[in-house]
């Protein structure tokens, strides 16, 4: 997997848009080489973004698996993810997406993690 810079600016000065927004389950699948790891790696290689809340969840999952804080942090940083904050507006909009995502078999977390693309 290629590591990419966490922040890139275009010539116009605007931040470059990430190719996609992934969630905790995609990161955990990649780190644990579970089903979907190859797809997750493809997205990571293309420059995925993630919400700060999903970083929180990923860190908690790793620590729960008895990985020490520093090692877990190194694992997450090595992914080279663009991380965006989950502010009040994004939290509300992500929560409201459950009406759309639930019928597609996506979880509440999936709707929350996808909120970074509009900002």
Layout: helices, strands, pairs:
Elements: E1 20-21, H1 24-32, H2 37-46, E2 48-51, H3 52-64, H4 69-78, E3 82-84, H5 88-96, H6 98-101, H7 108-113
Parallel strand pairs: 1-2, 2-3
Helix pairs in contact: 1-2, 1-3, 3-4
Question: In words, what does this structure look like?
Answer:
The chain is mainly alpha-helical and about 120 residues long. About 50% of the residues lie in helices and about 10% in strands. The protein is built from 7 helices and 3 strands, in the order βααβααβααα. The chain has helices at about 25-30, 35-45, 50-65, 70-80, 90-95, 100, 110-115; strands spanning about 20, 50, 80-85. The protein has a 3-stranded parallel beta sheet with strand order 1-2-3. The two termini are about 25 Å apart. Mean pLDDT is about 80; it is low at about 1-15.
How would you sum up this structure in a few lines?
With 119 residues, the chain is mainly alpha-helical. Helices cover 51% and strands 8% of the residues. Helix 1 packs parallel to helix 3.
Question: Which band does the percent of strand residues land in?
Answer: 5-15%
Overall pLDDT metric:
78
Distance between the termini: 26 Å
Radius of gyration: 14 Å
Helix and strand run? EHHEHHEHHH
Largest sheet: 3 strands, parallel
Strand order of the largest sheet: 1-2-3
> How many strands appear in the DSSP assignment?
3
Number of helical segments with 4 or more residues? 7
Low-confidence stretches: 2-14
Structural class: mainly alpha
Helix content: 40-55%
Using the alpha-carbon principal axes, give the shape: globular
């Amino acid at each position: 997997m290629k590591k990419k810079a966490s922040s890139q600016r275009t010539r116009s000065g605007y931040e470059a848009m990430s190719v996609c927004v992934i969630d905790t389950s995609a990161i955990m699948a990649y780190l644990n080489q579970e089903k979907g790891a190859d797809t997750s790696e493809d997205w990571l290689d293309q420059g995925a973004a993630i919400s700060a809340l999903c970083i929180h969840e990923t860190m908690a999952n790793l620590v729960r698996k008895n990985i020490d804080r520093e090692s877990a942090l190194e694992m997450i940083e090595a992914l080279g993810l663009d991380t965006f904050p989950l502010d009040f507006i994004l939290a509300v909009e992500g929560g409201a997406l459950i009406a759309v995502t639930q019928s597609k078999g996506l979880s509440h977390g999936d709707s929350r993690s996808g909120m970074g693309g509009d900002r």
